[in-house]
Amino acid sequence: MMKEIILEAVDYCFTNGIVKYNSQFVLTHAPICLSPFQIPEEVLDSIVALTPVYNELMVKVGNNRDFLQEHLKAVAKTDLFIKKLLDLLSETDTSHHLQISRNDFLLTDDNNSGLLIPKQVEFNTISNSFPYLSGKVYQLHQYMVKRLHCQGKLVKNDPLEGVVDAMGEVVTYYDVPNTYLLMVVQSQEQNLFDQRGIEYRLLDKYGIQTIRMTLEEVAEHGCIRKGHLVVNNRVIALTYFRAAYTPNDYTTNEAWNGRILIEKSSTIKCPSVGMQLAGAKKIQQVLAKPGIIEQFLPAELAREIRKNFAAIYELDEKVNSQTAFDLAMQSPHDYVLKPQREGGGNNLYGEEMVAALKGFNNAEKQAYILMERIKPPGETSILVVDKTAEEVKTVSEIGRYATCFYDGSIINFNRDIGYLVRTKSANQNEGGVCAGYACLNSQCVR
Ligand code: ADP
Ligand code: MG
């Protein structure tokens, strides 16, 4: 019986495009969780209610060059990628930018009261994947729920619609006839189909065509004409980054030239370099300090979002009578050490963290932050990876997708557009789906 259901789920994936390339570039279904994550409705509502507040906070931070410079300058001494991005800040045209973000949370039951509290893992400002596949997995579960007789009500999800609407609206705002979307991509992309899903819906709903290019290709085929970014004679109203978040995307000078061309032009950037930097883990750590978010938000809203912050430190910081560094050395399993990187697989845990800490000099210490390890209670799930199912103890991470358009003077729109649930084996530290750690899921409320 179970075998039959798993086969049906896998067939549904292949039939409906819930697919990706594996690391050998063979087509496979995306890793999925067989049935939805159960979340208390009030917890879900509380996360959704915070989306516009987080959006506003992050847009203000991302537009505040002095703030970004001040808090990232020590990082930039040893982290050359951050240094290059900071240098770009002074060259970029910041008249407007689109934000397509995802705010990730893990749920904890800190005092064993049975009440779950969402704790923020991080606010992602660049290259957020799965707006297409997460909606498809919701549809898979709509179908599976009937087969599995799940309890609870499945929560509708179609973040792709919100992504495409935001793109369509800002292209209209750009107000130049016959413009294109430029999707900046990596040359080898396992998660290609999630990106293609955006292209097709954007064309279908708004008649806007997409040009896919690597940063190197932008440098080769692009120029600036009357302020506009033009590639192969086509004006680009909106540049959407699904690459450019990792130093691996800048192995040549040409790649940097492509990025600089985009930044200097008036194309609407998604995100701007300022927003990309606002998503740095160092900035998250600074925002968690007392009094900082209060500079950006009314006190009452600041109080609300602070409830969701996990403890997060710089390594030299005094925590009671010792430093954060000492805390991590004493109880490595209660902390995560994070460099300024995106895309999964960069954080350090346990013994690996201890070894790294021992090797740091003073300057290197500044480039990392230390975060309290969030420990969700966990659940049992059936994970299906490469057609093989396994029942395991899991934890689930809830992300809220949002869009926000800053037109140079005001926030033009600010919306919550849906969710991503990733479920992973409880003994797995990292959370990325394409990095091979987690399975796509949906959620149901009880
Ligand atoms: P990245 O930018 O590489 O995605 P994240 O900070 O989001 O880095 O961390 C990657 C994954 O590691 C998360 O998706 C989550 O599963 C896990 N993780 C990160 N921070 C914590 C934490 N404080 N406690 C528990 N797990 C964490
Ligand atoms: Mg992340």
Helix content: 25-40%
> Which percent band covers the strand fraction?
25-35%
Bound compounds, please? adenosine-5'-diphosphate, magnesium ion
End-to-end Cα distance, whole Å, is 26 Å
- What general form does the structure show? globular
* Helix/strand/pairing category: alpha+beta
| Overall number of domains | 2
**What Rg, in angstroms, do the CA atoms define?**
21 Å
Largest sheet report: 7 strands, antiparallel
Assembly state (oligomeric) = single chain
| Poorly predicted sequence stretches spanning 5 or more consecutive residues | none
Mean of the pLDDT scores? 95
Record field, number of beta strands: 24
Number of helices: 15
Notable characteristics:
single chain, 446 residues, alpha+beta, 2 domains, seven-stranded antiparallel β-sheet, six-stranded mixed β-sheet, 15 helices, binds adenosine-5'-diphosphate, binds magnesium ion
Q: Would you mind describing this structure in some detail?
A:
With 446 residues, the chain is an alpha+beta fold. It folds into two domains: 2-310 and 374-445, no CATH class; 311-373, Dna Ligase, domain 1. The chain is built from 15 helices and 24 strands. Strands 3, 5, 6, 20, 21, 22 and 23 form a seven-stranded antiparallel β-sheet that branches. Strands 8, 9, 10, 11, 12 and 13 form a six-stranded mixed β-sheet that branches. The protein has a four-stranded antiparallel β-sheet with strand order 14-19-17-18, sandwiched between helices. A hairpin with a 2-residue loop joins strand 11 (228-231) and strand 12 (234-241). The mean pLDDT is 95. Magnesium ion binds next to strand 6.
